[in-house]
Amino acid sequence: MSANPELDALINQKLDELLPQKLEALLREREEAKTPSMTIIATKGTLDWGYPPFILASTAAALGWDVTIFFTFYGLQLVKKDISDLKVSPLGNPGMPMKMPFGPDWFKSINWNIPNVVQGNVPGFEAIATSLMKQTISNNGVASLTELRELSQEAGVKFVVCQMTVDLFGFDHADFIDGMDYVGAASFLPVAQKADVNLFI
Amino acid sequence: MNFDRELDARGLNCPLPILRAKKALGEMSSGQVLRIVATDPGSVKDFAAFAKQTGNELLSSAENNKEFEYYIKRK
Predict the structure, then answer these.
(1) Among A30, A56, A58, A93, which is most buried by a count of CB atoms within 10 Å?
(2) A58 and B13: CB-CB below 8 Å?
(3) Which CATH number is associated with domain A37-81+157-201?
(4) What is the ipTM of this complex?
(5) Cβ count within 10 A of residue A123
(6) Segments of chain A assigned E as strands
(7) pTM for the model
(8) Does the domain formed by B5-73 have CATH 3.30.110.40?
């Protein structure tokens, strides 16, 4: 304790005034100097659900972020060597518009309301839906999944793969593209903990 | 406006114009200007955000005849 209570009071008052400003300035400086980071858990293995992880990862990398994608369960399909055969299923997905990518505008604007019972029982329905979607993707100038994956890797996005699900589904490392680490949840979580953005897709 | 390099992003959709621009800027030197032409209406806000986040200056952003023209100066 100081012998001068008045001086103590004055110091305290000054500190109360100055500290918040100082702290805010320091925090702002730190925030601006920090490289933003994102981790994505990719769990889906269909043509449509393959897009969000690669679009967000490649764009974040273009913005200068550090990005890691953790591929697990059906997300493993996205890192197989050849992903040109991924499919989309309209079955059980009432949110998916069923429109034709060709013909006159009035025809293209029709949303075909095809009941699930038909979708599930007509052989080859999924193959047709997939080829129509691919046509729509290319008509709209949207990149192919393979292209987005390559762009992500070129831009430095880190790909990590869940070894447990590789074993579970009977895959081999040779089934997958190069340049990936095979890890477990315990390796991924500390990376996710430090990231500014965490997405489960 | 003068520019050092041009990127034709017409017909490309999100996120390709941004990815191509980033790549082109990466191959340019500091102070050089990249001209981009795009048709994706979403690219207006995207290029503004891209410039803000990466520190490359968006010198101008204009629309004429459903085409969008951007000039970005490499940081």
Answers:
(1) A58
(2) no
(3) 3.40.1260.10
(4) 0.78
(5) 6
(6) 37-42, 66-71, 158-162, 181-183, 197-200
(7) 0.79
(8) yes
